[in-house]
Amino acid sequence: MIELDLDEPPVVVTAGTSLFAEALSAQAAEPREVQWAPPVPGSEGALAAIAADPRTGPAAAESVRKMTAARPYWVDVIPASQALGLSPRELLHAGPPVSWADASGPLRGALAGAMVYEGLAGDVDEAARIAARGGVSLAPCHSRGAVGPMAGVVSASMPVSVLEDTEQGGRAYCTLNEGLGQVLRYGAYSPEVIDRLRWLERMLGPLLARTLHRGGPVDVRSLIAQALQMGDECHNRNRAATSLLLREITPALLEIGAPGPDVAAAFRFISGNDHFFLNLAMPAGKVAADAGRDIPGSAMVVAMARNGTEFGIQVSGTGDEWFTAPAPIVEGLFLPGFGAADANPDIGDSTITETTGIGGFAMAAAPAIVRFVGGDPADAIRNTLQMYEITLAEHPVYQVPVLNFRGTPTGIDATLVVRSGVVPIVNTGIAGREPGVGQVGAGLVTPPMPAFADAVRALGHRARG
Amino acid sequence: MIELDLDEPPVVVTAGTSLFAEALSAQAAEPREVQWAPPVPGSEGALAAIAADPRTGPAAAESVRKMTAARPYWVDVIPASQALGLSPRELLHAGPPVSWADASGPLRGALAGAMVYEGLAGDVDEAARIAARGGVSLAPCHSRGAVGPMAGVVSASMPVSVLEDTEQGGRAYCTLNEGLGQVLRYGAYSPEVIDRLRWLERMLGPLLARTLHRGGPVDVRSLIAQALQMGDECHNRNRAATSLLLREITPALLEIGAPGPDVAAAFRFISGNDHFFLNLAMPAGKVAADAGRDIPGSAMVVAMARNGTEFGIQVSGTGDEWFTAPAPIVEGLFLPGFGAADANPDIGDSTITETTGIGGFAMAAAPAIVRFVGGDPADAIRNTLQMYEITLAEHPVYQVPVLNFRGTPTGIDATLVVRSGVVPIVNTGIAGREPGVGQVGAGLVTPPMPAFADAVRALGHRARG
Lengths: 465, 465
Known about the structure:
The structure is a homodimer of 465-residue chains.
Chain A: E1 13-15, H1 19-26, E2 32-34, H2 44-52, H3 56-69, E3 72-79, H4 80-84, E4 90-93, H5 105-117, H6 124-132, E5 137-140, E6 159-165, E7 171-175, H7 191-215, E8 218-219, H8 220-228, H9 239-255, H10 260-271, H11 278-291, E9 301-307, E10 310-315, E11 323-326, E12 331-334, E13 347-348, H12 352-355, H13 370-373, H14 377-387, E14 391-400, E15 406-412, H15 414-420, E16 426-431, E17 439-445, H16 449-464
Parallel strand pairs in A: 1-2, 4-5
Antiparallel strand pairs in A: 3-6, 3-8, 6-7, 9-10, 9-13, 10-11, 12-17, 14-15, 16-17
């Protein structure tokens, strides 16, 4: 026993398993418990190698600096064939690479629907047969500078928004949001779905292009920043951002000289869908994340994406390599008539929002979202606070009023994830497991740690030289 | 000394002056301090009489039930002459009654500007001479079922919105919001101000009337409820509500067949002013507060209003009687180039928002407002929490997400104000002291306790018999 001579009672700090703290509490001491867990087994060597690599700190700082310096503007709406060089038999999808054979129900539904829309097949059964024998080529949206919500299917004729980073020059692309209910991105493919896709192609896309040409580019970063002061987190709550966007573009929309009923239909369509802005928030994230890519030694995550079968990440210091694990199940609230048995595993590129400091990471700014994804407002605040443990920076423009305007936690460091055991918090829609069903709910999902551990091992390998 | 035999350490509860608690703390005890202060001196007898009156509890409950049951819709825009029966030489103003001789600078500026606008005078100097010799009659907006922000001047030709309580049948009225900068309500009267009033009368008012006739009444209660989930408190922050309103009315505005440039000008005008919705939130409050009027025995406040010289309240159980005290000074943030010396005392009917459970009472829903009125987000939450101490109910529809969707504190009980020493929290714009200057800042203001004490004495007098 060591004799101590103290002016004040001693304070005991405990770390690791809570047994230590509990034992002290039982003896009427008041331990200060530090959240700490050993790193993921098998990653210790890689973590040590990365820590020893002199590039590590500066590389991470540089990648998050470039990510947060991005200033994405919505500059145009053009066909995917032109924007992404897509040929008629090329289809893009959300998440890491996947074959037709391994594709989940909603992704198959969306791919088949897109083939019918493109005239590659007369119906979805024929489309499925063509796809199964390799009659179309599949590639991730991320491989072409694009992102897509849920199934994320992009085909040549679809209009896509062009987002340009006016600070650093990058571009990113995303389709127009189709609205709610029966929509392609949730794997639905009814004639109503295909008709809407044609209306987007022939009516809304060209109208929005003319509106942007007349009114000028729209500062999407500014809209996100404002919406975070208005209860959005810009992944599953985009009501304020969609409202502000309408205020921004409607004057020019009224002035392009389009027929009155077309203008009214365009306004009603956008106003009828609080998620319209999501398809701008996502490419705004993509262009920011891409600015932080390919910095040797950086452990910053530059993509998190799910194809409905696998969850995958890409890290700045490891190029275009995907680190994947089975897509997890989403915990959340279901629409009337649906339950957990109807849910597909996690799907979509919309995790680009969390990758860049909004979405689940900004839930403290959007307490009302818990009515949609479950939990209570205190959970929303806790989620945001916890994300500071695994991120590199506080966003200089995206702020959370209730945290006294603290910048959102931005730039996930894969080594911090593996060291702490804290995985990114993601909120998301839930697609029906069967093709053709559509959305069945929304909730929170925990990305799989093995994807982060594999990324850290690959980075460790590079650190060792 | 009393001997106590306790299983646990005793807990000391202290009330009243904090000296008791401080003395215990100095002796290493941990007192639980209860916020309590003696009632305002001179009001004890009235409070006792009111407490002994069997009508008191049921009357208060009935008045707040009727206030919160109101369901105000925006049904029309018509000239004030028609809506309020105003003759050309009648002018309404904010707050309790006041004469020209006692009117403050901004109220004189607005009255003179309105007289020029109505053609009653060739310029503001002539208008002042006419007013000084009694050439116009003045009355509070509240006396005609109307409310007006800041100076709150209403004259016969101005278009006013008609709000109708579809549940209980009442109606209330308010002018259209003029926008920011040089505007009549802040006492400005330049030619630009008068021209804008004419444009409201000849263009925007009729366009909005046609829009409402085509699209149908707008559910203002629903817009307020949604805006409280989006960072507004609907007094000094109306950005979300104005955005949602535009989404609601624009489809019909596009379909009334008005010339394209007029429609674009109307949209730009509303979208260019985040406070446009205030002039709907205010009459929505007025029609709700009026539903709770004239319940014998009820101490519920049904009006708080300031004319720039005096602050006044009306209470349900004392009819149309005003209880007044000198208007207080606003503590807040000033626009560049202005300071406290430029500020007029508190002015405007916009405190109808606080009277009905929003505005300062709902600041916890609007943490970003502190950038406009001062303080930090924690203050905003504390302000809302404190208002539960002096209110009768939690609003069934207006909710604060960050307080786990608790209803806003609604229905101020004047006896609770006098008993507790807690006065309602009000946030407000600050008008320049000199006529013609306009807005100089925004902040928080503490209504004067004597007005509440006088109301309680009057109610006590009625309780006695």
